[in-house]
Amino acid sequence: MSKAWLVFMQSVPTFILLCYGFGIIGIAMASDYTRPGPGRVILTQHSDSGSYPEQVHVSAVGTEYMRISWITDDQSMPSKVEYGKVSGKYDAVAKGESSRYLFYVYLSGKIHNVKIGPLEPDTVYYYRCSGVGDEFSFKTAPGSLPVEFVIAGDLGQTEWTNSTLTHIGKLDYDMLLMPGDLSYADWHQPLWDSFGRMMQPYASTRPWMVVEGNHEIEALTFFGMAPFIAYNHRWRMPYEESGSNSNLYYSFNVAGAVHVIMLGSYTDFGSNSAQYKWLVADLAKVDRAVTPWLIVLFHAPWYNTNTAHQGEGESMRVAMEALLYKARVDVIFAGHVHAYERFTRIYNEAENSCGPVYITIGDGGNREGLALDFDSKHKYAHLSLFREASFGHGRLRVIDSKKALWSWHRNDDSTDTVRDQLWLLSLSSSSACQGGTKIKDEL
Ligand SMILES: [Fe+2]
């Protein structure tokens, strides 16, 4: 057991609630915690020359490749990555592509994307971008379980974002999953650059897999500017590999046992849409004997008792919930609401032992502050098992084909505190939920 894992386990509070029938063991504690207000936006500058790579981040492409993304102001810098398993010794080199975009009067730097590999699992690689500047390193995800995901939503770039990132970096993990709302640039493009610089120390060392939120739209229809221009250029995800034709929704496998689906809340999702048809095809390819865990992320929550953003995910829920239920999705993460909330297993607005656990984790620390008010009389209140308006992040440690440990870490100044925790049992291991009769009856 790693030292980081031991520290994590020792920090777990001791008051345990057993929720039999849902494969869940959870904890909850009372405390006198004082919630902070919105944090000051931190602008992160680039002090090196224009030829130096900046805003470096990496994302997994399949299980054997990694995409390295960075930006240079200097348009002459090559889209080239040198890499190897020994620091300073690069025995491989890969070349890729670059792009830039014009957003009203803002012209981006040269955005480089280079796919490198094949790579070995659970291995540290050292790399350098464009042949100059700092050496970076990342660790590939393990080839088999266990694997640990960090889930953080609605990050932004404030003092509280910094706190969340610091806590994320203090404990090891294999991959970060983000259910949308990254920079909060909100049309002001230099904030995308600042965000990329702030994320670099973390996003250059572990694969960061993101999906868009409403703050990524940034459409300027009056000027003929399409939505998601900055997001699609700067945070290119491996959509082609999963048969998607859009950077706004895609899927991938991790550790040979987890299938992760990223869905777009702000692109068409109706039954005639390309996204819906892609999702049907993607779910049909999932073999739970091979990938016993099925996880889904999107931005606007389908179940939410916070007074913020009520009903915004409803049309998507109506369109897609049956697909995900029939596929026996284990857990669904959303953001958008700047708070933490965990529900029981749900299908079609009712408790259902074969439905997904719904978790809202939009508490990364952005400038809009927390969504403080939960409605105790909401029609879903009886399904909500834990809710708290505080900044923090979550961790999902998938132990084996049956068990995973979810924990929500609240930012308590210099330390993080595990405020909520539960054991999840995969629905693929539940004979009751794998029976076709139950699926047919409840659709
Ligand atoms: Fe949002």
From TrEMBL:
Q: What is its EC number?
A: 3.1.3.2
**One Pfam family here:** Pur_ac_phosph_N
Q: Which domain of life is it from?
A: Eukaryota
Could you tell me which residue ranges the Purple acid phosphatase N-terminal domain spans?
53-140
Molecular-function GO terms, alphabetical:
acid phosphatase activity; metal ion binding
> Which stretches make up the Calcineurin-like phosphoesterase domain?
149-340
Keywords associated with the record: Glycoprotein, Hydrolase, Signal
Any idea what this protein is called? Purple acid phosphatase
- Tell me the lineage of the source organism: Eukaryota, Viridiplantae, Streptophyta, Embryophyta, Tracheophyta
